[in-house]
Amino acid sequence: MSLARTLAPPRVDLLRVAELVAPGSRVLDVGCGDGELLRLLVEQRNVDGRGIELSQQGVNDCVAKGLSVIQGDADADLVDYPNDAFDYVILSQTLQATRQPRVVLEHMLRIGGRAIVSVPNFGHWRVRTQIALLGRMPVTESLSHSWYDTPNIHFCTIADFIALAGEVGATIDKSAALDPQGRPLNPIWPKWAWNLLGEQAIFLLHRRR
Amino acid sequence: MGEAGAFVNGAIAQSVSPDSPTLRLGPGSPLRMDSGAVLAPLTIAYQTYGALNAAKSNALLVCHALTGDQHVGNLHPVTGRPGWWETMVGPGRPFDTDRFFVICPNVLGGCMGSTGPASINPETGEPYGLDFPIVTIADMVRAQALLIDHLGIDMLFCVAGGSMGGMQVLQWAATYPDRLFAALPIATATRHSSQNIAFHEVGRQAVMADPDWRGGRYLVEGTRPTKGLAVARMAAHITYLSETALHRRFGRNLQDRSARTFSFDADFQVESYLRHQGTIFVERFDPNSYLYMTRAMDYFDLAADYGGSLANAFKDSRTRFCVVSFTSDWLFPTRDSRAIVRALNAGGASVSFVEIETDRGHDAFLLDVPDFVDTTRGFIDAAARARGIA
């Protein structure tokens, strides 16, 4: 990956997301954290990038990088954006933490020509075995919170997300399931295998108009 | 000035001969105001800090708030106190005077040297008083643009200000979108709320109820309506603080006494504090100017000037904005800032927004609040890089 070589320690899943974005496009990154992905996109893909971030520290970090980021969250603030304001709206590892994932996804598809969503997969075999064999809510390396203090209130599996995309009238243009090292699983595997072996999945979608 | 010459008041002295450079425009270049009035001659008093670079790209305009003035980064000529925004302006500060040419004018209608109600009306040879035309935020900004022209600057690097200063920032962005690279509106709104108009009306009525106000002719008649202005200031000052901050600072503590006096003395520290705020304010501020400043804020409604749509005011703006609010500011609450952000987003502008966590109320923008200073520094530094300022 040319991107991987030029930037110090980019999260692998962010690189996968960045690869889906066409150069020179307008991008809204929802839940942009300290702006790592946005900066990657601005510097490497010359995008016009904007962000939304909940934490004051995150926003300050972004503003200091020269990024345009507003303090807010997906549930409350996407409603304020006009239709088709962006080419891509990105939601990375955050959908499961929103109060209304379906509404959030619909706003993303309204605001952007394309939506890019990455979700942790609750259908991964480790998760399934913890519930099935131990009878306990799963705590794994990537889902490290206990049930009572997790910000992740709306978990879904890869299969669940594909179903939601269908329900909101979205077409999935590209998708990839990643293993715990961030490597894509074989794309010709059936989706049930992704749902069992993928730790997370990334989707590029648009709404049929 | 006849009898008014006996008027010993720092503000009045400064309004006539300020300790600042001035731009003086004669009858040949009148200012057309929103009210329809035409104002000439026109004086704008201002302070500058740092040096304008060869490319004239490093000018940073600071707009002051209701009772502020041009002395943003130097000792005040009347009170002797430090500049009102020394957390922001100075060497190594976010508005780094080693890098930027900082300009701060006294607003039109003010009382520190720019033309205002205490200035001499050329038609009568007496102070204008209430004959001075009503000033709007847009009028203030038009006057500032004349100063910027005079200084030979086409495009400001940044326009920054809080409260009424923030209103001027927004007006700048709407009126002269090609003349500012960056905008920093802080603790402000695109229109004054009903509650804020109400507080201002209380203040104005306090001034006008003072028998020494004399229908606004106190300068001519040689009286000083200081009691009314002090009450106005006391009431307004409460709105600049939060309940938490007031309680933390004063609680129900008694002032220099161990028990209640069963009188209307200033038993409580908070009373004593407010009385002090009122007393020091009247030494440096002109009562009529207070009426005009509050009115300018009340009349401000940016959307109304753009067909009812705030987004139109900022349409296709290429200015980069950083909007800041404070959690405990109930005078200009965060929802006002969010309305600005919404409009900027709808207009496709480049905007950042931060809500700073603090319990210090509206006045937080004037205080040393580290998160706020950090945000400002980050925004200004990044904008300076984008503008190519060393």
Task: Describe this structure as you would to a colleague.
The complex is a heterodimer of chains A (209) and B (390). In chain A, 35% of the residues lie in helices and 23% in strands. Chain A is of the alpha/beta class and 209 residues long. Chain A has a single domain (2-121, 152-207), classed as Rossmann fold (3-Layer(aba) Sandwich), CATH 3.40.50. A seven-stranded mixed β-sheet of chain A has the order 3-2-1-4-5-7-6, with helices on both faces. The longest helix of chain A is centred in the middle third of the chain and has 11 residues, at 101-111. Chain B is an alpha/beta fold and 390 residues long. Chain B folds into two domains: 2-193 and 301-387, Alpha/Beta hydrolase fold, catalytic domain (Rossmann fold, 3-Layer(aba) Sandwich), CATH 3.40.50; 197-294, Rna Polymerase Sigma Factor, Chain: A, CATH 1.10.1740.110. Chain B has helices at residues 10-16, 137-150, 164-175, 194-209, 218-221, 226-240, 243-250, 269-284, 287-299, 310-313, 334-346, 370-387; strands at 22-25, 31-32, 38-39, 42-49, 59-63, 89-90, 95-96, 101-105, 156-162, 180-186, 320-326, 350-356. The radius of gyration of chain B is 21 Å and the shape is globular. The A-B interface holds A 50, 56, 59-72, 80-82, 85 and B 320, 322-323, 338, 341-342, 345-346, 348, 350-357, 371, 374-375, 377-379, 381-383, 385-386.
